[in-house]
Amino acid sequence: MDIRLLIVLTPLVLAAGWALFNIGTAALKQLQTFFNGEA
């Protein structure tokens, strides 16, 4: 594996993971609020 590919992909993977983490936590919070309000 070429080290340059790793250098380019690592920040992209980290940024995508961080974005998914932030969106996922907000989505879970919204789902919890939705289901708690319905019950």
UniProtKB/TrEMBL annotation:
Statement: the UniProt record of this protein carries the keyword Acetylation: no
Annotated compartments: Cellular thylakoid membrane; Membrane
Subunit structure: PSII is composed of 1 copy each of membrane proteins PsbA, PsbB, PsbC, PsbD, PsbE, PsbF, PsbH, PsbI, PsbJ, PsbK, PsbL, PsbM, PsbT, PsbX, PsbY, PsbZ, Psb30/Ycf12, peripheral proteins PsbO, CyanoQ (PsbQ), PsbU, PsbV and a large number of cofactors. It forms dimeric complexes.
Single Gene Ontology MF annotation: manganese ion binding
Job description of the protein: Loosely associated component of the core of photosystem II (PSII). PSII is a light-driven water plastoquinone oxidoreductase, using light energy to abstract electrons from H(2)O, generating a proton gradient subsequently used for ATP formation.
Record-stated family: Belongs to the PsbY family.
Record Pfam families: PsbY
Topology of the protein relative to the lipid bilayer: Single-pass membrane protein
UniProt source species: Richelia intracellularis HH01
Protein name stated in the entry: Photosystem II reaction center protein Y
Protein keywords: Membrane, Photosynthesis, Photosystem II, Thylakoid, Transmembrane, Transmembrane helix
Positions in the Lumenal compartment: 1-4, 24-39
